[in-house]
Amino acid sequence: MYKRNDLMANVMVTSATPEGSSSSDSLEGRSSDYANKSYDAVVFDVLKVTPEEFASQITLMDMPVFKAIQPEELASCGWNKKEKHILAPNVVAFTRRFNQVSFWVVREILTAQTLKIRAEILSHFVKIAKKLLELNNLHSLMSVVSALQSAPIFRLTKTWALLNRKDKTTFEKLDYLLSKEDNYKRTREYIRSLKMVPTIPYLAHGLCVVLYQDVLGYMLPEVEYEHHLRILLC
């Protein structure tokens, strides 16, 4: 079990009246004080949080959203319809989680001030992805890896060149595991190997299976339908 820490910080700016001065004296000079002062915005530094903590916090945020998904949301293919927010609200919420993590990864890398810092952040996310795999959170693992494979990030050749050999090897292994080849065959085999271990699966693949099953059920005779379904699930 992981203890959930609150990573959000509330910043409060307060002013105190110096001892021996009246409140009217304080109010009199307040406007000029504010005019002469500037407060720096609080900047969140992604490198200050360990990959282990990021992975555990992401997983703790993913789990209740995943557990909220109801069987009828999947069986009805409601997530693929115009009324998806009504028919499959939890599937929509879980998909939104995927996009939020992915966009966050891209933003953190692209907003880095220097090439060196950008490479450090890239390395940090590779480590976060590895920790997500160790936690069997394949949904957010795929989200992070997809972000690193996206055009805005993958084209940063100078940044990738600064990545050390260990991180490059880790990323290549994750990319291999999550490959779309043969309908995510390696990913599915990995999930099977976990047996009764708690896992947050990559939902998109499961949704595709359900959708194809629904479509084939209308188009094919029963025997042929079962044959195609076995191929799809293997």
TrEMBL record:
SUPFAM superfamilies with a match to the protein in the record: Ras GEF
Alphabetized UniProt keyword annotations: Guanine-nucleotide releasing factor
Gene Ontology MF terms in the entry: guanyl-nucleotide exchange factor activity
Any one annotated GO CC term: plasma membrane
InterPro entries reported for this sequence: Ras-like_GEF (IPR008937), Ras_GEF_dom_sf (IPR023578), RASGEF_cat_dom (IPR001895), RASGEF_cat_dom_sf (IPR036964)
GO BP term, example: Ras protein signal transduction
Location of the Ras-GEF domain: 50-234
Organism domain of life: Eukaryota
Name of the protein this chain belongs to: Ras-specific guanine nucleotide-releasing factor 1-like
Biological source species: Limosa lapponica baueri
Phylogenetic lineage: Eukaryota, Metazoa, Chordata, Craniata, Vertebrata
